[in-house]
Amino acid sequence: FVTEVEEGKDEVRELIQTLEREINWDGTSLIKYVGFWFPVRLFDTGFTDRPPQDLDSAAILPGPDNGLSLFKPILSAQKYFKAKDTDIILSTLPKSGTTWLIPLTFCIVNRHTYPIAQSPLLTSSPHTIVPFLELNLYWEQTNPDLENIPSPRIFSTHMPFNVLPDSIRESECKILYMCRNPLDHFISYRQFLLKNKIEKDAKPLDIDETFDMFCQGIQLYGPFWEHVLGYWNAHLKNPEKVLFLKYEDLKMETTLYIKKIAEFIGFPFSLEEEEQGLIEEISNFCSFENISNLEANKKGKFMGIVENSSFFRKGEIGDWKNYLTPEMAERVKELMESKLEDLV
Ligand code: A3P
């Protein structure tokens, strides 16, 4: 199937036309593939600063509604990505703190190569240092050469657990999954979409409609519950492989979780390092206040269109209270209890 997608065959276009469709919160279109919602198009063809690499995939994407945009990189990743036992995969739903998990993991793993004062994170955005499988690597090339990246390689992804390339599930590589309170996730995501108008002519839905869609599970890479549940079940099945993290826990006990992550991925801190305050140093360096104020994160764009600065908004727990009513919160609480009973 992936070869047919790569070639943009008519039958693939036809198949995609048969998939269930919905309007996303920002007015763009979504299609449902293996139980999850993916964008019909990732980019508006009208963008002039489209990254050059995108022209390659644009060549097979002539129509405005062709449905291949994110399929191609996801299917290419499924076909070509060969996980190594030493890999570390950072997986999240968008707006769960990916941009925080990246520097934390990078600093833990590379602390001997790059002392904080020489960290590449001082001059490059987290998403440049740790690329997304489907949004960077397999978006830019069908089969990128990732063999020569020094181990341990760190990649990020928003793919649901069942959509991951087989070799990630089958190898000994480690997966760090981070989720977030659904209400804060919802607000963070909505604000992000409002700020980055992916399609300039699309009309964002109002907050009540958007919230209703969220509760129905309609969102990019969603349903929220299924995404979280996929990784939660994988963690229960194999806790040595999948570490299940919550944004709120990391916020409240950052140093404890830095230690946990380090142990899980096989880079534990020695007593001496702990006594030297290395964990606190990493925690402070990766804090929202510090990292959001670095020049590299105030300028530049991700994938040529999304402002790097929009990955940093407030970085707080409970901001939803400024936007949602207690009734809305109650509705989500009931959903949480029915869908994720083991987790709440
Ligand atoms: P808010 O919109 O609530 O502020 P992602 O990286 O998965 O897209 O998630 C973005 C969310 O993580 C945003 O939440 C952003 O502010 C927050 N974030 C980014 N960097 C952070 C950091 N270093 N510490 C805490 N939160 C951070």
TrEMBL record:
- Recorded superkingdom: Eukaryota
Q: Give any GO molecular function from the UniProt entry.
A: sulfotransferase activity
For this entry, the protein name equals: Sulfotransferase
| Lineage, broadest ranks | Eukaryota, Viridiplantae, Streptophyta, Embryophyta, Tracheophyta
Top-level class of the enzyme under EC nomenclature: transferase
Question: Could you say which EC number(s) this protein's record lists?
Answer: 2.8.2.-
Query: By its UniProt entry, which Gene3D superfamilies does this protein fall under?
Result: P-loop containing nucleotide triphosphate hydrolases
Family from the record: Belongs to the sulfotransferase 1 family.
**Pfam families, per database record:** Sulfotransfer_1
Q: Which InterPro entries match?
A: P-loop_NTPase (IPR027417), Sulfotransferase_dom (IPR000863)
Q: What residue stretches are annotated with the Sulfotransferase domain?
A: 85-342
Record PANTHER family: SULFOTRANSFERASE SULT
The UniProt keywords, alphabetically, are: Transferase
